[in-house]
Amino acid sequence: MTSVQQLALARSSARDCTYNLFRNKQLPAILCAVPEDRPVPKFLDAGQWTFERPLRPSNVRPPGFHDRAAYAGVRYNGFYLFQVTATQEKMAG
User: Fold this and answer.
1) What is each CA distance from 40 to 2, 28, 49, 51, 58, in whole angstroms?
2) Region 4-10: what's the mean pLDDT?
3) Is the pLDDT of residue 11 over 80?
4) For a designed S-S bond to 71, which of 10, 37, 42, 55 qualifies (C-beta 3.0 to 4.6 A apart)?
5) Strands 49-55 and 80-83
């Protein structure tokens, strides 16, 4: 498989996935996306994290969320951590 084919597959796989989004309570700009068909990692405990919302394939991606990075993060770790910056929030709003 060529790298172009792999890239296309990664994009479609990440885009077709529904994620559960969790937000860090102490650092609200930090989010964790977990595919709904994967177990929630133990570090996402209720004392430090809160469930934000589901992120369905048809939803607009939050600023800072990148499909290719999500695909790689989930592939290697089972989850995808990302950060929303103030600049990205202003651009989205």
Assistant:
1) 33, 19, 12, 11, 22
2) 45
3) no
4) 10
5) unpaired
Residue 29 has pLDDT above 80, yes or no: yes
What global pTM score does this model have? 0.77
Count of structural domains within the chain = 1
Three-state DSSP state, 52: strand
Classify 43 as helix, strand or coil: coil
Range of the domain at 43: 3-92
Burial class (CB in 10 A: 0-12, 13-18, 19+), 41: middle
| Average pLDDT estimate for 5-25 | 72
* Amino acid occupying residue 74: V
Cβ atoms of 69 and 79 within 8 Å: the answer is no
- Opening angle at CA 49, ends 43 and 53, nearest 5: 115
In angstroms, the CA 76 to CA 89 distance is: 28
